[in-house]
Amino acid sequence: QLQLVESGGGSVQPGGSLRLSCTASGATLDAYGIAWFRQAPGKGREGVSCITTSGKANYADSVKARFTISRDNTKNTIYLQMNTLRPEDTAVYYCAADPLATQQRCIVWSDGAGMESWGKGTAVTVSS
């Protein structure tokens, strides 16, 4: 059974960078598309990015050109490199398995319905 654990969150000033990790256990990650979501204080969950088994990526408009998702199947880990962070990026970030992703395409879903094997999240705070 796939289990996902997020790490790498923390506090950073606006314009700074963080790299989040989503590490899998219980199954090999190369069989799964993976998605990142976030939930800001007092707001609903929103999709951030996704990556297919073949490495094709997709991003929400709000993070495009600032965030990069990647995967290292040898380490059973998905990464989310976040650059030029803004206060509005403050949220708890979650990764989940995306059973709706094909090998060539994934969709950044708005609320995560249908996603599986959610991690417990890692908190990111962007503040001066």
Description:
The chain is mainly beta. 0% of the residues lie in helices and 45% in strands. Strands 2-10-9-4-5-6 form a six-stranded mixed sheet, with no helix packed on it. β7 (67-72) and β8 (77-82) form a beta hairpin.
Produce the secondary structure layout.
Layout: E1 3-7, E2 10-12, E3 18-25, E4 33-39, E5 45-51, E6 57-59, E7 67-72, E8 77-82, E9 91-98, E10 122-126
Parallel strand pairs: 2-10
Antiparallel strand pairs: 1-3, 3-8, 4-5, 4-9, 5-6, 7-8, 9-10
Could you list some keywords that capture this structure?
four-stranded antiparallel β-sheet; 10 strands; 128 residues; mainly beta; globular
Short description:
This protein is mainly β.
- Round the mean pLDDT to the nearest integer and report it: 96
- Indicate the proportion of strand residues: over 45%
Head-to-tail CA distance between termini? 41 Å
Radius of gyration: 13 Å
What ranges have pLDDT less than 50 throughout 5 or more consecutive residues? none
In what order do the strands lie side by side in the largest sheet? 2-10-9-4-5-6
Structural class: mainly beta
Main beta sheet, described? 6 strands, mixed
Query: Total helix count?
Result: 0
Order of helices and strands: EEEEEEEEEE
The coarse silhouette is: globular
Strand elements, count: 10
Helix content: under 10%
